[in-house]
Specification:
With about 240 residues, the chain is α/β, with parallel strands linked by helices. It has nine helices and nine strands.
Amino acid sequence: MNKHIDTFHTIIEQSNSIVFFGGAGVSTESGIPDFRSKDGLYHQTYQYPPEEILSHHFFVQHTEEFFKFYRNKMNALDYQPNITHMKLAELEKKGKLQAIVTQNIDGLHQKAGSKTVYELHGSILRNYCTSCGKFYDAKTVFSSTSIPYCECGGIIKPDVVLYEEALDDSVIYSATYAISHCDTLIIAGTSLTVYPASSLIQYFKGNHLILINRERTPYDHLANLIIHENLGNVFQYI
């Protein structure tokens, strides 16, 4: 076993209050494409740049085109949790993991059995009418062939945070509180380049900051332990 992975497992065994902060790299081993890698969504060619399609103004001005892209590229309903999701759920059951803070919207942490999950960017599993507020499940949106409408006539919008939209204050508060009160913070599968999510690291006051990512991040200098490895290779031995 790699000595860094061995050290990681030792820290896990000795920690009693862990928070896991994850990004797209957590779900890529389930087959879900990420956004910013060389093969990611943002490097593919569409009629409009993905960053523009996934923006609030595009949703309002080009709603039908938004849903074409959303149904084609954001449907994660058939994907299954991988070893990292499963091991995190086990750590929560054992009382070691206090919370998961995720930038992902696929719902795989909950599918694996995790209970305390703070979804910074929302979830594809929740959808609501922009007029009356009625909630709909993901199948309602992904099975539609055009713009999904509520029975009241309003447009059904996925409960995901688009560009130009603010994060949910209550989610930010809960995530910040969890990070500021844990003794070990594991940051994994994220480049830490998306603000304000990346700024949450500043609230950590604990003993062990662990970064697991295939590439370097702007916060590597703050970490006690850095592992450049696939997450499955790190978590499979826990």
